[in-house]
Amino acid sequence: MASSVPASDVSDIKRTSNKNTLVAACTAHAAHDGLSDLVYVFLPVWQEMFSLSYVWLSVLRSAYALTLASLQIPAATLSKKFRPAHLLVVSTVVTALGWFLAGLAGSAVALGGALVIAGIGASVQHPIASAMVARAYGGAAKRPLGLYNFAGDVGKSILPASAAALLTYGTYHNVLMMYAGVGLLAAALVWSLLRNVVAGGEAPVSRTPVRADSPAAGYPRAFQALLATAVLDSAVRMGFLTFLPFIIKAHGGSLAQTGLGLTLVFIGGAIGKFCCGWIADVLGSARTILLTELLTAALIAVVLFSPLTLAMLALPLLGVVLNGTSSVLYGAVNDVVDPATLEKSYSVFYTGTIGAGALAPVLYGYAGDHLGVAAAVLIIAGTAAVSFVPVTIVNLVNPRVFDQ
Predict the structure, then answer these.
(1) What's 205's DSSP letter?
(2) How far apart are CA 42 and CA 56, in angstroms?
(3) Which CATH fold topology does 12-194 show?
(4) I need a surface site. Which of 21, 36, 39, 276 has the fewest CB within 10 A?
(5) Cβ within 8 Å of residue 125, ≥6 positions away
């Protein structure tokens, strides 16, 4: 029987569904990333409360970060058994519960346990929300995924900054309870947006094999190339941020100028995540990745060798390409994998990038200890200059694979 719903109404319903999916994913990303970065604000408070050494503070940070990184793939497997919308809501509630328990913790061990619970909740968001947006928008997902990534930076900017301000007026416990409430409000908003969404949030029931001439035919080599580039890109980003304060100091910069420099990079990074998805739609993913990585390498060299004033002026531009590449890489995943495997693919992708971001400062730090800061930063720039190679090779073999 033919459908009695006019085609225009079906189109409107689909657009509304996609919009709700994107807003819900952005809300979850902002909340989870913002709550994750609260750890940095509370580390000095915890040190004073529990008389902790820097080693113990590192353990607390790792309790959250390593849980978040290690459970990406297991979290993605849950999408085969439960609705993605339900997983996203429940995981956000679990994260809020973790922060609530952190506010009640009377010892460092109890606090660590609470942060593990928060990390368990946070591990679900990246693969599930990314896949929901990618599935909702299909081949036009680069811009929405850029907005999704931008939302995470917004959360990282607003929540920790507001927490630092609130700690000057309220008690530590009350502030933590308030941010647990923020997590619950985010979960409620996500649920209100997704409860009637199906097309944007659910994996397709059909498991029809991918056509040989489709973009996903490049999987797994195309996906592996994206992952390799993303791992190197994440290593460059975290490595450079680790050394940036020392570069500014070597240029004669003050502590205030160091803070300003980091802020300029982060502002540029937020703009880059917002804009680079649009650039990829014009130039194509492979060309955009090539351009942004080469610009990253060049601008790192400019910051390293230029006088302080010129280096500071270059930092926002560096932030754009340093962070913006990730939006293009995440968007390109949707071009090269079977839609039925999106959650798994994104979980592997995030595991690789988060893990690289955690290990890179250690490896580059070893180079800095033995070769000096300038040499270590040049190695970072060199890493950026070759990071596009895997994607470029695959694109040369099959120019259609990344840009359908």
Answers:
(1) S
(2) 13
(3) Growth Hormone; Chain: A; (1.20.1250)
(4) 39
(5) 28, 29, 32, 88, 91, 92
Q: pLDDT exceeding 90 applies to what percent of the chain?
A: 35
Residue of 285, 359, 360, 295 whose CA lies nearest to 322: 295
pLDDT at 206: 38
Closest by CA position to 359, among listed 195, 212, 236, 260 = 236
pTM of this prediction? 0.75
Two tokens, residue 333: 């995943």
Minimum mean pLDDT range among 241-250, 280-289, 331-340, 343-352: 331-340
Residue 322's Cα: distance from chain center in Å?
13
Above 50 in pLDDT, residue 36? yes
Omega of the bond leading into 220 within 30 degrees of 0 (cis): yes
Q: What is the pLDDT of residue 274?
A: 78
Write the single-letter amino acid at 310: L
The CATH fold assigned to 215-397 is Growth Hormone; Chain: A; (1.20.1250)
Q: Where are the domains of the chain?
A: 12-194, 215-397
The crossing angle, in degrees rounded to 10, of helices 342-371 and 108-137 is 120
Question: Angle 329-332-336 (CA atoms, 0-180°, nearest 5)?
Answer: 130
